[in-house]
What we know:
With 154 residues, the chain is of the alpha/beta class. The chain has one domain (2-150): Metalloproteases ("zincins"), catalytic domain (Collagenase (Catalytic Domain)), CATH 3.40.390. The protein has helices at 14-30, 46-57, 96-105, 110-125, 133-150; strands at residues 2-7, 38-44, 65-69, 88-95.
Amino acid sequence: MHIDFHDQTTSIPSDYVDMLQRLLIFAAEKEGISNEAEVSVNFVDNKEIQELNRNYRGIDKPTDVISFALQETVEGEIHVVGEDIPLVLGDIVISVDRAKEQAEDYNHSLEREIGFLTVHGFLHLLGYDHMVKEEEAVMFQKQEDILDAFGLER
C-alpha cells in the first residue's frame, strides 16, 4: 500500500510514522485491500481540524479524526474500473492536540491513541461507520481486533 504522511505539526516522531505505516499495511491485509491502494495520513492541530469539521460536517468544534473517502459513489457519478487505475482510498486527518488529550484521558500512550485514530479513520475510508448501534458494534470490534492482533493494545 502507498501511504503519504503529512505532519503539519512537526511533532510526530519518525518511529510513530514507521509504526503507522506497518499498522495500515496490516489493516489493509486483514481487510483484503490491494497492495496498490493509496491513502494519506495528515497530522494537524485543533484549529485546522475544527475548520475542516465546520466546513465539511457543519460541526464547529475540534474532533479527533476525520476521513475523506474517495471511493464513495455519488448519485449520477460515472464509475471507472481498470487494472492500471490505482485504488485511491482517501485522506485521514488526525488532530495531534486531541490525540494527546485522549491518550491522557484514557490513560494509554500517545502511540496507541494515534494508532487507534489511524485505524478508525482507515475503516471509515473502507465504508465502515458507527451511526447506528449495529454498525458501531461491527466497526469498533474490527478496530480492537486489528489493534490487538498488531500488538497495539490498551
